[in-house]
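Exercise 7. Predict the structure of DNA gyrase subunit A from Leptospirillum ferrodiazotrophum.
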Amino acid sequence: MDTPLPQDAPRETTVSIDEEIRTAYLNYSMSVIVGRALPDARDGLKPVQRRVLFAMHEMGVRPGTAYRKSARIVGDVIGKYHPHGDTAVYDTAVRLVQPFTLRYPLIDGQGNFGSVDGDAPAAMRYTEIRLTRLAEEMMAELDEETVDWSPNYDESLEEPRVLPASLPLLLLNGSSGIAVGMATNIPPHNITEVLNALLHLMDNPEATDSDLMTFVTGPDFPTGGVILGRSGIESAYRTGRGSIVMRGVVEVEDSTRSDRQCLVIREIPYLVNKARLIEKIAELVREKKIEHIADIRDESDRDGMRIVVELKREAIPRIIMNQLFLLTPLQSSFGYNAVSIVNGRPETLSLSQTLRVFLGFRKDVVTRRTLFRLRKARERFHILEGLRRAIDLIDEIIALIRRSGSPEEARNGLVSTFAFSELQAQAILDLRLQRLTGLEREKIEAEYREVAALIASLEAILASREALLEVIRQETRVLLERFGDGRRTVIVPDEGELTPEALIPDEPYIVTLSYEGYIKRMPDAVLPTQRRGGKGRIGVTLKEDDCLIATLNARAHDTLLFFTDLGKVYRLKTYELPEAQRTARGKHLLSLLSLSPDERVAAILPVRSFEGDNLLLFGTVKGYFKKTRLSEYANIRQGGLIATVLEEGDRLARVLVLHPDRRLLVATRGGMSIRFEADNIRPTGRATRGVRAIRLSPDDSVVSFEEVSDSDLLLVTTEKGFGKRVDTNLFRLQKRGGKGVRIAKVTPETGAVVAILKVTERDDIDVVTDTGRVIRIPSEEIRKVGRGAKGVKLVSLSDSPQETIVCAAINPKREPTPLEAYLEKEPTGRESRGEEEDPDGKADDGDKDSDIRI
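Solution. The predicted structure, encoded as tokens:
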């Protein structure tokens, strides 16, 4: 029968559901945070890890003893200290065994405990474990009242709340876990570096994070690898949070096939699954996101890791390596988040705070251990004092004992008659007769003196902070000598963020632009060098009413500045242009740049770097010139940037990079030119028009200009295929703004001047016609003549339809590529008409009125 409630007892209780949910969730959160997911900053362990180690310690499964079945250990942990799933406990034990997970394993395993490939460990009934020597150091002082204890889950036993760790395990092995509303992710570190930093902190209590970073250079992962840069490390150590970029170790080796190379991955980033890494590489190869890989093999064995990525013949190893870093976990980031439990609360700790928390805990442990040892020593000293007196009174004591009817009566008699304490009296009764010999008596005296000295030393430790620190210092040095080792992870300077550009070979290309706006890039090797006068090779296929207006040489990583005739500038990387075959038309600029319908590109300038004091020289068709710093064009929006101001009706003719202390030579379509000092044009900003460089006749316009010295050679090219080389010293130096002198005699036979180029004997010249034909001619084969001469025939033009030269560009000499060497072997007789000169072998000097004849 139920007992009735008192009359005044409340029948129901009203609570706020919001408050109840908040309280219940907070209790649950704190239980997960403190009791399961986060490590304690003092011993660096989570509760389940601590219980596994303590249970093994209690079972006597220690270094040097026989291994025990994992199942037996797991059962003991569950039954006594951790009443949760056996899988969770076994997984914890497995993690404490794995050398690729922990920098310093705490359990020595025998059997299959998984692999870096992500293989699962064998069942607990098959594996065996025991503690490592380092784990024993974590629990060596448990029986000396060094830490607090608490009841286990059913209050039948007691377990330590924290282990009396002699090593800062939170840093040595790191920790990871996800709690409620927070997480921790601390990487492992090198024991030598951490203990040296701890010693420095003892000697310099005010040491900063920067000071300690001279000892702890960065994480030291069990799988080795490379850390890129120190910025992430410094942020992590100062704030407790940071991103550390890890990278595997990759070497380039010659393949077993003599004509190939291969990449050999010897180390991978921490916590990266090797099997999944290989699968990811294979997947990228199948999807053609990474090309030029012929085979992937895992040749890893007990001697170490070795993943072989065999490359195809045409592959560039550095490019493939960068692709692997960018597209696979071979380069990963470790999110440093140093959250741990400090005084029962989660805190984010810097490097110095982590070591200070451990050092404070270590002081407390050593103090409690010293107090325990002092108490034990005093108890022993007290007994030894009684034994010494008893030896001197041995006859009287023996007589008293013989008279006593029982041990209790004898003990009481010793206390009352000789003033011994209860402990001393019991020790005297336990004394064996052999201790009365001279040798044994001397041993008692020696132990008495030894214990007296021990008490004095223990009291000195407790009386002095420096003495206490010296004890910790000496013990730390012993541990350093015993467990210290070298780093496995190398820290290298950061190469900067790995961008798609790093995956593209910085190879030379030929860039072509047509009048209708079609642009492309093609490998430099597609055009072979020919003799002058040859018919050339088709460089691009264009529409009937289109022609090429620009061709230039640039490398893949160059920045191309597109200056338009309206005075604006746009930018693209060379590798962003469409790569096309030699005869392809390319892609329209409108799909790449935000050009207006009436805007055309007047100049394309390849720029390697925007740093320095380089100046850009702008020239317009009306003869206005200005200088502006190249750095002002480093940041160009997608919609372009105003490059120069133009007056009504004027257009931009050309832009080039101007070097200091140089002279300019400006040429016009009508064959006039002027040479003057570039310093006559003062530098101005972007939003300026400039000054007049040459005075033009009404029907003339500027076609191009070059910066020159007295020793330079100029190549002059005309519409009808004529060209010549001219010494620049033939052009007298003038003031800017004059009419200038003749650079070429313009006739219906030669056509107008279309280009001037500064050339050397080792340059090749690419001449482009409006039908898309390109011929490459060695500069040395073009005759040097006077200013007024018409020159020699560079290319044979077609009469149907009338073909003209639209531009010319320089291609510096270089070693021929295999493709070019092959193409050069092809006969050229079918494609060349030979040289076209005067019958007597002399060049036409053109202008009969010229004051200089050659």
